[in-house]
Design a protein that fits this description.
By secondary structure, this protein is of the alpha+beta class. The protein contains four helices and eleven strands; from the N terminus they run αββαβββαββαββββ. Strands 2, 3, 4, 5, 6 and 7 form a six-stranded antiparallel sheet that branches.
């Protein structure tokens, strides 16, 4: 109030602002308390599920090469090797339509001079080709990958690569595994709630983890997931992190 008995308006405005601030602070604090109380009535549990699977598709590759001072001779030798490879695979029960040859890669070798420098004179041409087989007969492909180097005895410069193994029904299996992992999380939550004289209510949220597809009895894990293709028999692991309501 000023000397004339009237209120000073600036002070009144400040007082009103402070009052409003106190009311808002009280509301925010109260609302935060309610949210904290609600959050305290839930539990977060990680469930998991494991299952052993056997690959139902195998992919195997082999390579062979031929070398000669003349390109035409090298090509002829490679063609002869290809015929031997095809005949060998057919003799092992592989259908001709399942035998896929790649395009031919060519490299040129130049003569090395006595001083160690490379000359412009061609020493030889080397031609390189791969063969690939995809089959659901995984046991047959496994055996073939081990025996294919017998082609060396026929004069073929052959190399056999380790097969890659896949499970073609993995998409459907992942759905099943997520369901099992969620059920596991539910069981864990129920056990914890039982020990505290509570019960589990509704599922509030669920977060899917990455899948780990590893060789049997492997402890390997990765934040990005693992998709092993080196093993015929595998183990798939699914993880689900679930938040459940807890009712007192």
């Amino acid at each position: 109030m000023n000397e004339n008995g009237k209120y000073n308006s600036p002070f009144i405005i400040v007082a009103v602002i402070l009052a409003i601030g106190l009311v808002l602070s009280a509301y925010v604090a109260g609302n935060s308390f309610v949210k904290a109380k609600e959050a305290g009535n839930s539990i977060s549990i990680t469930g998991s599920a494991k299952k052993q699977i056997k690959s139902d598709l195998a992919v195997w590759r082999g390579s062979f090469s031929a070398r000669a001072p003349e390109m035409t001779v090298a090509y002829s030798n490679l063609q002869e090797s290809q015929d031997k490879v095809r005949a060998y695979l057919q003799g092992k029960g592989i259908a001709n339509q399942n035998i896929v040859f790649s395009s031919i890669s060519t490299s040129t070798r130049y003569l090395i001079l006595p001083n160690g420098q490379t000359s412009n004179q061609v020493e030889s041409y080397e031609l390189y080709q791969t063969v690939e087989i995809k089959s659901k007969n995984v046991d047959q492909i496994t055996l073939l990958s081990r025996e294919a180097t017998d082609l060396i005895n026929q004069g073929v410069e052959f190399q056999s690569m380790p097969p890659e193994y896949f499970y073609t029904k993995i998409a459907d299996l992942k759905i099943e595994m997520l369901s099992l992992a969620t059920k596991d999380a539910m069981k864990r939550a129920e056990q914890i709630a039982k020990n505290t004289n509570s019960r589990v209510g509704a599922l509030r949220s669920a977060r899917m983890g990455v899948f780990q597809i590893t060789p049997l009895y492997s402890n390997e894990v990765s934040d990005y997931g693992i998709n092993d293709t080196s093993s015929l028999d595998k183990e798939i692991t699914a993880v689900m992190t679930c938040e459940f309501q807890i009712i007192k």
